[in-house]
Amino acid sequence: MVTAGQRESQERTFAKSIVIQIMASIIDLTRRMEINNENWKVMRFASLYEQPSADHPEGGGRIYLPPHQRDWSWIGANGLKKMRKFIDTLLHNYPVPTIILNRFDDGVRERWQVYDGRHRIETLWRFVNNKFSIKNGEAEVYYRDLCPSDRRNFDDRFLAVEVTDKASFVQLADVFIRLNSGKALTNADYCHASRDSPLIRGTIEHLTPYKERLRAVFGGNDILAKKSLPHWVGIVLGLTLNVPGNMTTSFIRIQEHLDLAVNGPAIATAMDALVDLYTRANTAFVLPEKGLTRYSHIGFINAFFIADWMRVPAEITVENWLRVILHIRKEDDDSIVHISGAQNLNDKKIQLVHDNVHTWLSNGVVTAPPLPADSESEDSDEGDA
Question: Is residue 299 domain-shared with residue 206, that is, in the same domain?
C-alpha cells in the first residue's frame, strides 16, 4: 500500500519531471508559426485572385502576390505547355503540391498572400477567364467549351492549402528560402524575396534618391534592379554596421541582419562621395557605357572605396581612388584591386586590397594580393554578379 507520504513524493517527482521537460524544449516560440491545413476548391482560387496589372502589380484580388514573388516565368510555347499540363492534372484528378498562403486582415477585408503556388493559382485563373486553351486531340478547348460535368469536376476539385496566420516578414522570407532551397536560386532572388524586411526596404528607400545619378555614372545600370540589389544591400549593411567586412552579396550572411534599421545619414554621405568619384573619373577618362556597368559591382571598386572612405577623410579618399580608377582604365590593368571571391568580401580581403592600393599609391608598385587559405567559404559569390 502506498502511503500518503510516498504518494506526495511521487507527485513531486512527476511535477518536477514535467517542469524539466518544459524547460528542455528546443522550440523557440517567437519563431513558431501558426498553420491551418485547409482544402479550397479551384473556383475559390479563381474568384479571389486577380492577374497583376500596371496599376496593381501585386494583383487587386483578395489572393495577391507579396513583393518577394518572382516574375511570371511560364511564358512562350514552353510556358503554355506547362499551363496546359497543370489544367490536365486538375481535370484528371492527379495529385497537386500544397499551396501556401499567408492570411491577414488589411482593415477592410481578409486577404491572402501567395507564398508558394503563384503559377498554379494564376494558371487556373487564366483558364477560367478563357485566356488560353487546352488541347483535346487537334481541337482547342477553352474553359467556356467544357461540358457541364467536366466544368463541375474542375470547379469543385479540392486543392490542399497550408495557411499561415499573420506571419512576420522574417518568417515569410525564411519560408520562401526553405521552399526553394533545392532550386538554383541566386542571391538576387533571395534579396528580392526579402524586400519587406527593414534592411532591404531601407536600402531601396535610401538609395532611390541616388538611383538616376548612379545610373548616369554606371552606364545606365539600374542599381535597384533585381540582379543588382545584393550589391547595394551589402554596401548598406557595411555602412550601417560600420564594418566594411560585412559588405557582401552573400545572402547567407545578409540574412542574419534583415531586421536591421539602416543608417540613412551614413548612406547619404557615402553615396555623395561615390557619385563624386565616378563623375570625376568619367570626365577624366571616358568609357563606353558597357565598360561602366562593371563599376556598379560591390567587389570591383565600390566596397574598397567605401571601406577606405569610412576611415580616411573623404577628400583624400576620392583623390586616391580617382588615381586608381584612371590607372585601371588607361593601363587596362585591374590587378591593384583584384582579389578572388570579390563579391563575398570580408575584413581580410578588404585589408589585402587596401594594402596593395596604398603600396601602389606610395611607390607605383602593383602586387596582386594573395588570398589566405581560410578566407574563401562555401557561400562565396564570385561570378554571381
Answer: yes
